[in-house]
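Usage

Read records sequentially. Each one opens with the input sequence:
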Amino acid sequence: MTRDPLAAIIDHTLLKPEATRADIEATIVEGAALETYSVCLSPSVLPVTLPEGLKLAVVVGFPSGKHHSEIKAAEAALAAAQGADEVDMVIDVGAAIEGDIDGVRADIAAVRAAAPGVVLKVIIESAALSDDTIVAVCRAAEEAGADFVKTSTGFHPAGGASVHAVRLMADTVGGRLGVKASGGIRTREDAEVMVAAGATRLGVSSTRAVLSGGEATGY
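and closes with the structure output:
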């Protein structure tokens, strides 16, 4: 991929708990300068002012997903009211692992209902799930009205995005939903192989390094 099409599918991400207001403002400036699709931020930093053309993604139930659905829904509704274009919610990973797919579907549906006007991405924490569970959760996300399925928070000890998970997710949703790869994308090669596997959006914190062909650590 050339630089510009790659930048256009990146959510330039800052989700570190120690991020300051100055860090947030610098991330917004950098995202605009790099011409990324969006910046992806924590909900407590809202409201923020964005330059024209830069979208705002906000995480919900992050990073554990171990929140009541009502809390996730309220968080999503508030984020939407404060200007979020997109919401990236975390499922209850434990519920998925134990086979409670109905509960996962209901959790996603609650957030969907609370923020009907935003793009909804569902973070499934794919590195912690079996292939069968990845498929089941992706199907539940589609049934609940999600717009994207997303691999990872970037904070789970099991790891971030993998080519295998992205390909499996893409095959499952069949182009009806987008697929966001996130967690561990640190080089241009990482980004390109995720796109080749089926990712239609990328979550990246080291965006400048990735776009320039360098390497950096981070989300």
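Summary fields computed downstream for this record:
- The first strand starts at residue 10 and ends at 13.
- Residues 21-34 form the longest helix (14 residues).
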